[in-house]
Specification:
Elements lengths: L10 H14 L4 E6 L4 H16 L4 E3 L28 E5 L7 E2 L6 E6 L10 E4 L6 H12 L5 H14 L10 H11 L5 H8 L4 H11 L3 E3 L4 E6 L1 H7 L9 H5 L7 E8 L2 E8 L5 H7 L3 E2 L3 E7 L3 H18 L14
Parallel strand pairs: 1-2, 1-3, 3-5, 5-6, 8-9
Antiparallel strand pairs: 1-4, 7-8, 9-10, 10-12, 11-12
Helix pairs in contact: 1-3, 2-3, 2-4, 3-4, 4-5, 7-8, 10-11
């Protein structure tokens, strides 16, 4: 295991310190996560928020979830972004590998950083990072246990959502026995699992129109070892979709038979956002780091700022080529060969 992927030393000692700190805090506790929040960002932050509210704390939850997750928070739980933190506030940043990716409030003052990304920059007065955890929500589960909050379905539902989504609904390689044990425990607190799993899979009609356009861009590279696709702003407009409707297409690409790397490129105003998934010993994290991003071994991402899709493709494929060579799946002198 590389240094980046090693768990934070003294994990439980630090988690106990965070629990004790949050119990003693008398001022507001502001909870935020990373930009473009996913199920884990929502699940970990909302679960902790509800637990702290149950403790009687003044907690503020700031997150703008994508449409498919908006059935989980209650209207009264939403809070607008803060330009400045309240006096005596404690800021908790969850699931964000770098403070520059955290949104909703300025990352300043007393900061608690809890994350499972190995590339985390270890910011904050207290930080605990454990890449062996498949989701930040797993770490929040530990923290809520240490806070001695009585679990119920309201708290358990978002936490389970974070675990489900970051393990690919228990299909990814980060699905460990601990994941199943934790999920079973959370369901035992009254989560309506079948209903939750069904709702998390709902997509609007525009999503299916956009899917047809995206699938027309699919290409296979390096003899089928890598698969790519992309979406443009024009395609999103044509389908009448929202930008977030393309967020899970990389998961669809990952199912391509024979591929070990799936890359989805999203055209954005600032450049091209890259989502990467990998398997069979190939590291999405290494590819992302090559592109200036970060993440986990099976799932990572990056943004090529100021680049067009045409400029981004060769850059991305060169990073993929290097990783396939490192993994022993491609000869050093082997060029890309698209598979029709």
């Amino acid at each position: 295991m590389s240094a980046n992927n090693a768990p934070e030393p003294r994990y439980w000692e630090k988690m106990r310190l965070i629990a004790a700190t949050l119990k003693e805090v008398e001022g507001p506790i502001v909870i935020i996560a990373h930009e473009d929040p996913d199920g884990d960002a929502l699940g970990s932050t909302l679960g902790l928020y509800r637990a702290l509210k149950k403790l009687g704390k003044e907690a503020i939850w700031i997150l703008d979830p994508p449409r498919f997750l908006r059935f989980i928070p209650k209207e009264e739980e939403y809070h607008p972004p803060l330009e400045a933190l309240p006096e005596d506030a404690t800021l908790v940043v969850l699931d964000s590998g770098d403070k520059d990716r955290a949104v909703g409030a300025p990352v300043e003052g007393f900061v608690i950083n809890i994350d499972h990304h190995g590339s985390n920059s270890r910011f904050g007065q207290i930080h605990v990072v454990d890449p062996t955890k498949p989701a930040a929500a797993m770490m929040v589960k530990d923290l809520i246990d240490l806070l001695a909050v009585e679990w119920d379905a309201e708290i358990a539902t978002p936490v389970l959502t974070g675990i489900m989504t970051d393990t690919g609904f228990f299909r990814n390689s980060n699905t460990t026995p601990e994941v199943f044990e934790t999920a079973a425990e959370l369901v035992g607190y009254g989560v309506k699992y079948a209903e939750l799993a069904d709702r998390l899979s709902w997509r609007p009609p525009e999503y299916f129109k956009l899917t047809a356009l995206v699938l027309s861009t699919v290409q296979f590279h390096f003899g089928g070892l890598a698969v790519t696709a992309h979406v443009t702003r024009a395609m999103i407009e044509e389908a009448g979709a929202a930008e977030e409707d393309s967020d899970d297409f990389v998961g669809l690409l990952k199912t391509a038979e024979g591929s070990v790397v799936a890359i989805f490129l999203k055209e954005r105003e600032e450049g091209v956002k890259i989502s990467i998934r990998s398997k069979n010993g190939v590291s999405a994290q290494r590819i992302a780091l090559e592109l200036g991003g970060g993440g986990h071994v099976p799932a990572a991402g990056a943004t090529l700022e100021g680049k067009t899709l045409e400029e981004a493709y060769p850059i991305v494929l060169e990073a993929v080529r290097k990783e396939l060579i490192r993994s022993g799946l491609l000869a050093p002198d082997e060029e890309d060969a698209k598979v029709v």
